[in-house]
Amino acid sequence: MAIAKAERLMNLALCLLGTRRPLSKRELRESIEAYLEAGSDDSFNRMFERDKDDLRELGLVIETVESLDGEIGYLARRDSNRLPPITLDAEEAAALGLAAKVWQQARLAGAASGALQKLRAAGLPEDVDPYEAHGALEPRIPVHEAAFEPLMLACRDRRPVVFEYRKANAAQPEPRHVEPWALECWRGHWYLAGWDRDRGAERVFRLSRITGKVRSRGGRYTAPVPDVVTVRETVASWAGETADRSARIRLRSGAGYPLRAKATSVRELGDGWDELEIPYGHGLDAWLVEFGPDVVVLEPAELRADVVDRLRAVAKG
Predict the structure, then answer these.
(1) Closest among 177, 175, 179, 183 to 159, alpha carbons compared
(2) Are 63 and 75 in contact (CB under 8 A)?
(3) How do residues 153-189 score in pLDDT, each as one tens digit?
(4) CA distance 178 to 158
(5) CA distances from residue 209 to 148, 159, 166, 203, 290 in whole angstroms, order as listed
(6) Rounded to 5 degrees, what angle do the CA atoms 309, 233, 230 make?
(7) Contact 208, 145 (CB under 8 A)
(8) Dist CA 245 CA 216 (whole Å)
(9) pTM (two decimals)
(10) Are strands 243-252 and 210-216 parallel, antiparallel or unpaired?
(11) What span, in angstroms and rounded, lies between the C-alpha atoms of 200 and 223?
């Protein structure tokens, strides 16, 4: 259905852009196969009006012209729908190239490559190579979770979804009905921020804990979508980036370099262990579990209990 509508919109746009005079509904219906297959005039009229509105929402300037005999016609003048020339300096081109290189996922890599080719054709300086390496590090955002693509499309199209989600301290997954806002990557893990309909509150879900298929649901959003900055702050808080306290842990020597990078103090204990003081915020217990037997929580007691509960849940499978 989505492919058929996209093809119909493309054909209508080409007809309106390619004509030198306004085309009536009758002429447009005779020129586009999908309109010819409409069962009735009412069905065609509804389809045409929706398509015309969709093209206008996409930015196509469609003029409505009335002829001397009162017939209504439509056209999209090329001069009204031509984008201004695109000019990029070396720094801007380098930023676009860096963004394109970040993606390893095939779907987005192809889109990024195609966009850069169009920018080159539109006037990107020939002496600027967007793919040129600008440092010793190769930026990457790996995407391994099967839930990524359907959630990305749901965020784009503003469609509610339902999926099975297993919390870190739970033995079995449970269904979640969510209005997805955005996907964010923190510390190499992907998170979905959105509105949990069952709980009536905003929630953040780690994609690696989503089991089974992500299924779309009909209907509109019931909660307002915050701006992207607020969403990122929400994900940062749930992912443990926002800390208002400190925790003390024992860490095996030579292990846990991400924890050492966050530590505010490090003290050698001997016997292959160090003591670290690290910022403590929401989500720290889930992060510590990833280091397994290399980490022992000393305090606070509530963090230690949360880590133990998560490890027991993992052991139970």
Answers:
(1) 179
(2) yes
(3) 898 888 999 999 987 666 788 999 999 998 887 766 7
(4) 11
(5) 12, 21, 6, 14, 14
(6) 135
(7) yes
(8) 39
(9) 0.48
(10) unpaired
(11) 9
Contacts of 309 (CB under 8 A, 6+ apart): 169
The helix (run of H) or strand (run of E) holding residue 294 is: none
pLDDT in tens, 2-54: 567 888 899 999 999 988 899 999 999 998 888 888 878 898 999 999 999 88
Q: Which residues of 177-214 are buried (b: 16+ CB within 10 A; e: fewer)?
A: ebbbbbbbebeebbbbbbbbbeeeebbbbbbebbeeeb
How far is the C-alpha of 169 from the C-alpha of 288, rounded, in Å? Answer: 13
48 neighbors 31 (Cβ within 8 angstroms): no
Peptide bond into 300 cis (omega under 30): yes
Q: Would you mind telling me the total number of residues written for the chain in this entry?
A: 317
